[in-house]
Amino acid sequence: DPAHVHTIYHEDLVRAPEATLANLCTFLGLTHDAQYLAECSSVVFARPTQPRRRSEWSAAQLADVERRARPFEFLVRYHFEGGNEAPRTPSERSTAPLRFPLLSERIAAYFNPRV
Questions:
Q1: Burial of 37 (0-12, 13-18, 19+ CB in 10 A)
Q2: DSSP tag of 44
Q3: Close Cβ partners of 85 (under 8 Å, ≥ 6 residues apart)
Q4: Whole-angstrom distance, CA of residue 82 vs CA of residue 87
Q5: Mind giving me the DSSP string for 81-92?
Q6: What pLDDT, in 10s, does the model give residues 23-71?
Q7: Nearest CA to 12 among 80, 87, 77?
Q8: Residue among 50, 36, 44, 46 nearest 8 (CA)
Q9: What whole-number distance in Å separates Cα of residue 5 and Cα of residue 28?
Q10: Long-range Cβ contacts of 40-45 (<8 Å, 24+ apart)
Q11: Residue 17 above 50 pLDDT?
Q12: Which DSSP letter does residue 25 get?
């Protein structure tokens, strides 16, 4: 039932963390106060992250991603070059290969999360 789903966009959480969290708490039927919202908001990124900018994307790859995203209404607001941030030049992109955590690291993070 769509009434049981509450969509939160990362950009909204970063832009207005307290309001976004208050809306989520209300949706879940949870009480919240200003101190709780402030403490939760204190660990939110200062600006949205964009890991997609770490790699070069071909026109075919971009078209494929857009085609796959099209059926999902909650993705309609996303585009590869969205927002006000200018695209990074090749010299600004990370040249380091992406590193994915080992299973042991993921398990350790689950039991001992960093906040």
A1: middle
A2: S
A3: 50
A4: 9
A5: T-SSSPPPPTTT
A6: 999 999 999 999 999 999 998 888 777 767 778 888 898 889 888 988 9
A7: 77
A8: 44
A9: 10
A10: 41/17, 43/115, 44/13, 44/14, 44/17, 45/14
A11: yes
A12: H
Q: Whole-angstrom Cα distance, residue 99 to residue 106? A: 13
Please answer whether residues 14 and 45 qualify as being in contact, where contact means their C-beta atoms are separated by less than 8 angstroms: yes
Per-residue pLDDT tens for 68-104? 988 988 888 877 764 334 443 444 434 444 455 566 6
Residue 98 CA to residue 57 CA, distance in Å, equals: 15
Residue type at 50?
Q
Q: Which two tokens stand for residue 95?
A: 């040249």
